[in-house]
Specification:
The protein is 17% helix and 51% strand. Strand 1 and strand 2 form a beta hairpin. The longest helix is centred in the middle third of the chain and has 11 residues.
Length: 120
């Protein structure tokens, strides 16, 4: 299972904070959410800021579903959808970088309902 799939499986579950075991102490991240046709919200920072983001976010009613992915050495890139009650509500693009120890030290994701992909 890819590092992004592992991360999503944990943060979509009942104990999102358990993903700390996948994260490097030097984590830098950005999560960008569309908030309509003319704006976005960017939650970004370091490891403590990610911990705060997870605590504030709580347990969402939507889940991540990876539909396409690629990896190159220590980097991963995914395209996927977020679903609520089985229906697609938005698509996301995510990328990460792994340390030599296999921990995530860079993570960026963008999510928007404005562009939906039709994948077979």
């Amino acid at each position: 299972m890819s590092a992004l799939r592992q991360l999503f499986a944990i943060i979509d579950g009942p104990n999102a904070a358990d993903c700390v075991g996948l994260l490097d102490a030097d984590l830098r991240f950005s999560v960008v959410f569309s908030i309509g046709p003319h704006g976005a919200q960017d939650v970004a920072g370091d490891h403590p800021a990610f911990d705060d983001y997870l605590a504030e976010r709580g347990a969402p009613t939507w889940t991540h579903h990876v539909r396409a992915e690629s990896a190159h050495r220590v980097e991963g890139h995914d395209l996927g959808e977020t679903r609520q009650d089985g229906a697609t509500v938005a698509w996301f693009v995510a990328a990460l970088r792994l340390t030599p120890e296999g921990l995530i030290d860079r993570y960026i994701v963008g999510r928007s309902p404005a562009v939906l992909f039709e994948l077979g």
